Every structure is written in structure tokens, then in C-alpha cells.
Amino acid sequence: MLLQALAAGHRVTALVHDVCALGPGKDYRSTLATRTAGPAPEAMAAAGVRRLVRLSALGSGGTVRRQSLFQARASRLVMGTLMTDKGVADETVAGSDRDRDRDWTIALPVMFGNGRTVPGGYETIPLDGTRGRVGGRIGRADVADFLLRAATGGQRIRRRVILTR
């Protein structure tokens, strides 16, 4: 995402630790999402920042109803605690804009896939849309493209968006 942002002419400040931003890594029992969901909007308010784009996952919290049956079973079995944690954090962020002082977007990608993709060739589906279960895989470059567009554009404000290929 860094290279995409720089290529688009944005000024970027990156905080990195090894290759991970703020995330649980492979700790599927992590509660990092809920521990940071409350302080993040507070820090944003203190700094005068309005825009938050959050990377979550399709299958977090109540979004499991939109996952394909196979992916729902697999994520519950392997990452049940992590998906519950992400769901609580997503609800915290979504509920944090009662005064409409924060513009948030929560990205809910389907399962990540490896391989080459054409950036921008993915589909976005509002979580509250009428479409049923969604499966498949999406490339990391596609997710990075969406996150950058969401952070710099004025679309999908206060929305949860499913990302799929």
C-alpha cells in the first residue's frame, strides 16, 4: 500500500515494526482489536483527525452470516476468538461516531489469496446489501488499493464493505 500511495502522489508517514502494522500476526487468540478500538477514536479526536479506515475480515462478529458456508466453518474453527474480537472492535468503531465527528470505513475482505491480481479488478459489496453469502479469495494488492482509495476519497463513509474478487 505504501508504494501505491506514493505513486498516487500522497505524502506518507509510515510507522512499522518488522513487516506488520497494528495487527495480531498469527496469534488467533489475540484481543488486540478490542484493546485498540476504543483508544483509536479517542486519539483521533485529540489530534483532530476525522478519517479512519479499518481493515477487519469477513467473518468477524455478525458478518459470519455473509461468508460462504465453507469459509464460515473454517474461520470459526481456526480463528473463532480472533473473529469475535474483530467483531467487537468493528462494533466499537461503528458506534464511536454518535456525534458524527468521525468518518469511518471498515473493510471486510474475504479470505486472502496469493498470486498476481490486477489492482482495481475487485468487487465491493455493502455489508447491508441484499446479496447473500460471499466466498472466494482476494489479493493483498486489491485490499491495499481499496484501503488507499477509502482513505483518500469521500465514499463509503460510515459503512462496512465486503471486498471480493
Q: How are the SSEs ordered, and which strands pair?
A:
Elements (H helix, E strand, L loop, with lengths): L1 H6 L24 H6 L1 H9 L3 E5 L13 H26 L8 E7 L1 E3 L9 E4 L10 E3 H13 L6 E6 L1
Parallel strand pairs: 1-2, 2-6, 3-5
Antiparallel strand pairs: 4-6
Task: Describe the fold and architecture.
- There is one protein chain.
- The mean pLDDT is 85.
- The protein has 165 residues and is of the alpha/beta class.
- Helix content is 36%, strand content 17%.
- α4 links the parallel β1 (51-55) and β2 (103-109).
- The longest helix has 26 residues, at 69-94.
- The strands form 2 sheets. It has a 4-stranded mixed beta sheet with strand order 1-2-6-4, with helices on both faces.
Question: What can be said about this structure in brief?
Answer:
With 165 residues, the chain is α/β, with parallel strands linked by helices. The chain has a single domain, classed as 3-Layer(aba) Sandwich (Rossmann fold).
As for the CATH topology, it is Rossmann fold
In CATH terms, what is the architecture?
A: 3-Layer(aba) Sandwich
Report low-confidence residues grouped into runs of 5 or more: none
Q: Can you count the beta strands?
A: 6
Distance between the termini: 18 Å
Could you describe the largest sheet, including whether it forms a barrel? 4 strands, mixed
* Structural class by SSE content: alpha/beta
Portion of residues in beta strands equals 15-25%
Corresponding CATH superfamily: NAD(P)-binding Rossmann-like Domain
Order of helices and strands: HHHEHEEEEHE
Mean pLDDT: 85
- Count up the domains: 1
CATH class: Alpha Beta
- What spatial order of strands do you see in the largest sheet? 1-2-6-4
Helix fraction, binned, reads 25-40%
State Rg. Answer: 15 Å
Count of helix runs: 5
